[in-house]
Amino acid sequence: MISREFWRGKRVFLTGHTGFKGSWLSLWLTSLGAQVSGYALAPPTNPSLFELARVDGLVDHHVGDIRDLPFLQAVLRQANPDIVIHLAAQPLVRLSYAQPVDTYAINVMGTVNLLEAVRNCGGIRAVICVTSDKCYENREWDWGYRENDSMGGSDPYSGSKGCAELVTASYRASFFPSDRHAEHGVAVASARAGNVIGGGDWAADRLVPDLMRALIARQRPLLRNPHSVRPWQHVLDPLAGYLILAQHLFPEGGGAFAEGWNFGPSEDDAWPVNRLTDRLCALWGGDCSWDASGSPQLREAGTLRLDCAKARHRLGWGPTWRLSDALAEVVAFNKALLDEADMREVAFKHIALFESGQTCAEEVLSLA
Ligand SMILES: NC(=O)c1ccc[n+]([C@@H]2O[C@H](COP(=O)([O-])OP(=O)(O)OC[C@H]3O[C@@H](n4cnc5c(N)ncnc54)[C@H](O)[C@@H]3O)[C@@H](O)[C@H]2O)c1
To answer: I want to staple 235 with a disulfide (CB 3.0 to 4.6 A). Which of 2, 161, 196, 204 is the partner?
Structure first.
């Protein structure tokens, strides 16, 4: 359960606040009454949720490179946060094949720099390093991966996220050991989530943004792997997991939660690409069909699912929105954008619906 009382007045340092997840999290944290300082490069897409929702007007916004340790350290010191959430990354698998060195530098050394800056800055109580479900060694198992399974990653992005997990574990063991939490007071955890969707994502080579671009342009979507099953979930679901995890890390005894955590969708809510596309088309309305294209794929690991029993039992976290609810939010967001609505208000409204366990389904019907 997210506690408004907990977040009111908390100082939160967020890296990657100009990105898709970071913009949603900035909006959510400010709506909870937290004071957010952000550190990131310029928004990675145009348009972006960051600009549409005018997130820079809500947070203390800093443009900086995560590879620049002295500047990162200076900004972190000035922000003097209670809680740090590290989202900044090169997050795209396909781009990681074209830019492996940058991907490792940003994702691995970026995590080293963040933790080093934390080490040199007093007063921080909780740190969450966000990696990915792709951090696990993918053994093509049918069952979900648990937090104590091996790290791995065969493409540069996945490998970099496996490395970021090892960096986090090693900094924790060396400088913030859980069994001496009472002495140093810093609880360092990592969070592993899978493919997220939601309004405000315009990243290249992600299925739902590609589909929305095609639908808005009245083009037939091209599907590369119509029968692949991927465990998508709405972006607010793992973000809720990060917020609840921080609430557990912050107090005395938070060291007991300083470890890796999975946040993924329910096992029975994984859909193949063609079903997701059909549902999105139906929600969008109008005449819509898709083509299966024969374009060759770069090697991407097979389906990997997360076992989230630990987060369910120990944090009381579970998914709020089913995939069909997530798709309704995407459609409601994009219709509102086409109607030139105030996208900050739209995002706040969708967050409020999520928090109260409602969906955007009625909004979509009213827009049909
Ligand atoms: N979107 C997903 O489906 C998904 C799935 C699993 C994990 N993740 C992880 O969640 C995090 C956020 O992903 P996202 O989808 O919001 O990505 P995004 O591309 O929308 O945002 C990335 C953010 O990182 C910042 N950034 C990139 N390089 C930087 C650098 N050198 N220095 C400082 N900032 C830099 C960008 O400016 C941006 O703010 C990433 O760590 C990503 O690996 C995302």
So the answer is: 196
